[in-house]
Amino acid sequence: MVTITESGMTFGDFDQDDCYQIEHSQGHNSLGQGFKMVEFTYLLEQKLFVVEAKSTIPRATSQPDYDNYWDEIFEKFENALTLQLMAFVKRNMLAESELPPNHKRMDWQQTSFQLRLVIPKVPNGHLAPITHKFRQRLHKLKKLWCISDAHIFVVNEEKARQEGLLV
User: Fold this and answer.
1) Residue 101 contacts by C-beta under 8 Å, 6 or more apart in sequence?
2) pLDDT per residue over 103-128, tens digit each?
3) I want to staple 19 with a disulfide (CB 3.0 to 4.6 A). Which of 14, 104, 113, 123 is the partner?
4) Whether the model pTM is above 0.70
């Protein structure tokens, strides 16, 4: 079983065949400097969870920090989806060699992508507007990968636990 500690939370327990710790992978490292990455991807049935954890979020009024934050989030999700596909189609042999067995057998056509930004202490009442912003910033990814808003959420610790992402 795999557990991942990030931003004060412990994600898991995931079966090793279902969890790709993409941020600390050789595939990620093989890209060189400057490629930001989400923490992990996790395959559960026909859903691929792409998960980034952040301990906080800057206030919208603190510019340019707020815009930079969302730019970095976009980059992490974009890079993760690209590397995951590169591994699957054997365009990055290091990533392909470490891709978990169930990820290698994944049916990309039938799998839904579940994008999650986990910020542990966000109050429930603030999740909807932050999720709206997250979806806006991922507009290009949504178009390119045909990902519905219904599969993109910012969640706090409580919601992440309900989704089975936390120990």
Assistant:
1) 17
2) 999 999 999 999 999 999 999 999 99
3) 14
4) yes
